[in-house]
Specification:
Blueprint: H1 3-9, H2 13-28, H3 34-43, H4 50-62, H5 64-82
Helix pairs in contact: 1-4, 2-3
């Protein structure tokens, strides 16, 4: 099944809820202002049509494997540093 086919079968509710919560959290903490919050919500297509949401979240799924790989690399890097290892020569 292609990424596009997987994306069209996904329900984006969890992503929309998390995106809304994160934008609100950042606004409440003063990290972003109301305009930034509103732009964030609009950009995530939280209130957009199903087609717009599929397009937006489809971009996420396109990079999903890369995101997981980088996350795992960062975890390994953190463990290495925590164990007293050198940071030279390590790239994320």
């Amino acid at each position: 099944m292609s990424t596009t086919e997987q994306t069209t079968k996904k329900n984006f509710t969890n992503y929309k809820v998390f995106g809304f919560w994160l934008a609100k959290c950042f606004k409440d903490q003063g990290i972003i202002d109301k305009d930034g919050h509103d732009a964030w919500i609009k950009a995530q297509e939280i209130h957009g049509s199903k087609e717009d949401q599929e397009e937006f979240y489809g971009k996420f799924y396109t990079f999903y494997d890369e995101i997981l790989r980088r996350n795992n690399t960062m975890k390994l890097h953190s463990l290495h540093i925590a164990a007293g290892g050198s940071t030279s020569g390590l790239y994320i």
